[in-house]
């Protein structure tokens, strides 16, 4: 069965499932393209308030397919560069998507699969889930933004353990550093992720999208530049329907109805 991205609507949540069971849900350019198409449609659908990204059959994602990578050695280097460009375009889209994306991790998130997890806004993981960046074990280096995210989020020594030693760690090792929001019993990650998505569905999608953009901006901007962005976003949010509805609902002691 070829690599594919399964799509399912659960109330106001879009569930996207990486499915490539013969290769432990290894990634493929077809998955990048399918996810890009799904997210583009979801961004325009006001009925979708959040996205959950998970893997089929109790496994999140094994990363790149080593057999395909080995075959690419017989091709011009640009072939692999083009494939990585597609992956990076997908990673950038996960960051830029204007609604919350939640990774629900069972089994393992390895290599670029781990990078995909790190590109999500929230991570829900089973207590026995494994996270590994073992590129070094096969003489390769990370892609998908994995080294960027880990170097920024973790102490240098732990980032080195993951990236240079290629050590496998469990959710409990990463949660104290904030890389995992919720740790669940094995088999419960998707259920917990859907509950989180449901709670987010009651909040302003407009405000959440702007806040996500501010988080992205803060990583590269100076304080002065970011303060300007905060001002512009606050004013825009105040004059949006949701800003007025949220304030009135708070003052009237009722639940807001956001659009």
Index terms:
alpha/beta; Lyase 2-enoyl-coa Hydratase, Chain  A, domain 2; three-stranded mixed sheet; single chain; 2-enoyl-CoA Hydratase, Chain A, domain 1; 259 residues; 2 domains; six-stranded mixed sheet
What top-tier CATH class of the largest domain fits best?
Alpha Beta
> What's the shape?
globular
In the sheet with the most strands, the strands line up as 1-2-3-4-6-9
Number of helices: 11
* CATH architecture type of the largest domain: Alpha-Beta Complex
CATH-defined topology of the largest domain? 2-enoyl-CoA Hydratase, Chain A, domain 1
Secondary-structure element order, N to C: EEHEHHEEHEEHHEHEHHHH
CATH homology-level superfamily of the largest domain: 2-enoyl-CoA Hydratase, Chain A, domain 1
Report the end-to-end length measured between terminal Cα atoms: 40 Å
- Please, what is the average pLDDT? 96
How many beta-strand runs?
A: 9
Number of domains: 2
Which range does the strand content fall in?
15-25%
Task: Name the helicity range.
Answer: 40-55%
Largest sheet: 6 strands, mixed
- Regions with little confidence, pLDDT below 50 for 5+ residues: none
Radius of gyration: 19 Å
Structural class: alpha/beta
Write the layout of secondary structure elements.
Layout: E1 4-10, E2 13-19, H1 29-44, E3 50-55, H2 66-72, H3 77-96, E4 101-105, E5 108-110, H4 112-118, E6 122-126, E7 130-132, H5 146-153, H6 156-163, E8 169-170, H7 171-174, E9 182-184, H8 189-201, H9 205-218, H10 223-238, H11 241-251
Parallel strand pairs: 2-3, 3-4, 4-6, 5-7, 6-9
Antiparallel strand pairs: 1-2, 7-8
Helix pairs in contact: 1-3, 4-5, 5-6, 9-10
